[in-house]
């Protein structure tokens, strides 16, 4: 990357992570807001392809990527999971992944041999946007060559869904959530014997044009290629440019029910950061491994030689939740060793274009233990190589020597969640220098999306043990860095996830169950 590349994204990371006052300055009320968009993106006048609602209640390997497999992947990938009834009616629909205030800015597109589609989750249908097989165009745009994928998913950020409340800050939320959804699609695909290749880097213009998307209002954020088995994917030896590839397809402009604000007008900073991140030449694509924070020089707890029990992913996804509006733990016994065993392996098995082949997900895991059986309370850095937990040396310990580790995090979190009886807190720590030095301004997306992918895995690990996993963005990053003992400013806590058993709170909430074939 050239000097200066990445400065726009870097500055936005500083504001959106480390200057909450500035990031929230333009925040709007969610109530009686004239810019509130429809709950779902609705296309009009396009052919629809219903998907079978008779999907298996348990996920298993498929022999062929047929209609049932596609329906299963979409249903457990991004389908509705629960409907909530409250007096305001503001957060009614929950899905298999979390979304801030259930706004679900991220849209999912499905590119199959027969055409390009939008996934209409409430009707569980595909809406045809363009005929024909365009998988090779997406291979070209991601700089890859080799066998065609069975399907290619494209995740976009429909910013107006989130920006009507959060304005420019919607860019952080949508990129985090594109990561969460990528993480879930990858998990579900793997459980079905499929392999997903995550592309943060692609030529934006041809991808957006293929789907008929406006790059300012709803850009593609992630391209996810799905193969039936381990496909031998190579880097395309021919460098391609966005303009040349975009010229090979006609524009489309399918009719969408108008809704929400114009992001390019209402969110100047978001628009600037997003435009700076666009890629025009596959020759600029890169991969590298981040620099991890030093492992603290403390006596580690060695990972006990146990295997976490296999999970029934479909059931766990149906049960996954973030807890009620007011996050309030219920005192409970949770097996810490089982959680630890899962976290020790949680960064493996993902194929992403941001890191060299075989490298783990590029975020470090910090575990703050409140009440878990088998692990003493305290804050630990998980060593990816050994699985050991190293007690951290808190930078705030001089002033706060008597404060326990959970309270240290509570003090740097905006008041809201209840921390009493918290089982654990997970922080995902990224390397901003790696992101911006390797990917330029695209680094903002890459950091948040990789972190989101891992955050979803943490939420699934929590749900497997009956805990809610609550992603909370409302924390002071500098304070968290001190509590985690992070000395180098390059290392940033990108996600904070509260883990605890919770009750329903004041909600009436009913599951939206797949019909099930057995
Ligand atoms: C990116 C992101 C940021 C979030 N930030 C906060 C937050 O700052 N405070 C909070 O209480 N909840 C936060 N949440 C939690 C969501 O409101 C919650 O996930 C949503 O209501 C969906 O609930 P469910 O996962 O139970 O379906 C956040 C969720 C996401 C995905």
UniProtKB/TrEMBL annotation:
One Pfam family this sequence matches: Nitroreductase
A single GO molecular function term of this UniProt record: oxidoreductase activity
Domain of life where this protein originates: Bacteria
Ranges where the Nitroreductase domain occurs: 98-223
PANTHER family, A to Z: NITROREDUCTASE MJ1384-RELATED (PTHR43745)
Identification of the protein by name: SagB-type dehydrogenase family enzyme
InterPro entries: Bacteriocin_Proc_Enz, Nitroreductase, Nitroreductase-like, SagB-type_dehydrogenase
NCBIfam families linked: antibiot_sagB
CDD domains assigned to the protein according to its UniProt record, in alphabetical order: McbC_SagB-like_oxidoreductase (cd02142)
